[in-house]
Specification:
By secondary structure, this protein is of the alpha/beta class. Helix 4 packs parallel to helix 5, helix 6 runs parallel beside helix 7 and helix 11 packs parallel to helix 12. The chain is globular, with a radius of gyration of 24 Å.
């Protein structure tokens, strides 16, 4: 009865985890299902899998190797397959066998497997002829594995965040073979070669670039100043300075998300204003853990007219500075969220409550208020 009641309430749902036995009515319009199908009948499984658009295989511990392949062959319309965190006995060769049947429809592949063998990866790529998105973040893919991915000419999205075996040389060779890339995530790879940035500069279609927590020299960032299609740029933890960021932003006028968390060379007095004043299209700005005081906060709110989300957590602003900045005559009216988490100078709840009353549409996040 509980299941049938839930079915009526979730008739239009598109995403739901399958952790318990459920009736077919519940999944009439489902497009994405997490398969925890321990107690579901074979007939119901086939009905559910037939129209599933996303395959999430993260918790298939109840299936052994012999039963997995027949189970997954029931997918007919899937567009995405997620091998992240699956059972230890799964290899890329097995994944390739799975994709031999359902592969032609798959356009997006996710995997955080620790066992990334090149033979299996080669087979996997061959069995996914229409693949355009790959997310191997957190996996143990190596440079030789990257060379295999480099053969996918049509690839538009590549995410390799926190892959410990990836090196400068592997990334350089890979990027030069993927001219159609639009999204590139190289977060946390400890890359340092200027040639990496040089190769990225040749990506004419790139819109989303994450180079956070790498080790590029401050004078190498100028190479990114030729990029004109960027809409999202993340450089957290880098040593880029105000002049380098200004050069990039002068060319990348479409940027609407800028993330420079813990970039301690930014916001130097008299040097940050040139790039702050050209962020006409910026919607989201994360400058948490930067050297920001009340004056910088006031300038941000004054000169970025389209800003909607601002993160200044872990900075040196105080309650009075926030109130004064928000009340400024030239402050933009589009701001709807400001994050001031762990700003140690903010300890006056009453003043912030007053701000909330005067700006009722503004969401203020601060968990350490006393």
């Amino acid at each position: 009865k509980a299941t049938e009641t839930m079915a009526k309430k979730t008739e239009l749902a598109h995403i739901l985890p399958l952790k318990y036995f459920c009736t077919e009515t519940m999944f009439k319009n489902m497009h994405q299902i997490d398969y925890h199908l321990e107690n579901v009948s074979e007939e119901l499984k086939r009905e559910l899998l037939k129209d599933a658009m996303n395959i999430n295989l993260r918790e298939l511990g109840f299936l052994d190797e012999a039963n997995l392949l027949p189970f997954l062959h029931m997918f007919e319309q899937s567009k995405e397959i997620d091998f992240s965190g699956i059972s230890e006995w799964m290899t890329l060769s097995m994944c390739a066998n799975i994709c031999e049947t359902i592969g032609p429809s798959i356009y997006r592949l996710l995997s955080k497997m620790t066992n990334v063998d090149n033979t299996g990866l080669q087979l996997l790529v061959e069995n996914l002829p229409n693949l355009v998105e790959i997310d191997f973040s957190g996996s143990y893919i190596s440079d030789s594995g990257l060379s295999i991915i480099g053969d996918i000419d049509q690839l538009t999205t590549l995410k390799l965040a926190n892959c410990p075996l990836v090196t400068n040389e592997g990334v350089i060779g890979l990027i030069r073979n993927l001219p159609m890339l639009e999204v590139l995530d190289l977060y946390g790879l400890d890359l340092s070669s200027p040639e990496v940035l040089e190769s990225i500069a040749g990506l004419e279609h790139i819109t989303d670039l994450d180079l956070s927590w790498n080790c590029f020299e401050v004078d190498s960032f100028f190479q990114l100043s030729v990029l004109k299609t960027l809409e999202r740029l993340a450089l957290s933890g880098s040593i880029i300075d105000d002049q380098g960021l200004h050069l990039i932003l002068q060319s990348s006028k479409k940027i609407n998300v800028l993330i420079v968390q813990a970039c301690h060379n930014l916001f130097t007095i008299e040097l940050y204003m040139p790039w702050i004043q050209i962020l006409d299209n910026l919607i989201e700005f994360d400058c948490s853990s930067c050297t920001i005081n009340n004056e910088e906060l006031s300038d941000i709110l004054k000169y970025i007219p389209s800003l909607q989300v601002l993160n200044v957590s872990y900075t040196n602003i105080d309650a009075e500075g926030i109130i004064e900045a928000l009340k400024g005559e030239e402050v933009n009216s589009s701001l709807n969220m400001i994050n001031i988490l762990n700003c140690t100078k903010i300890d006056n709840v009453k003043k912030l409550e007053k701000v909330k009353s005067e700006f009722p549409s503004l969401q203020i996040t601060c968990m350490l208020l006393k």
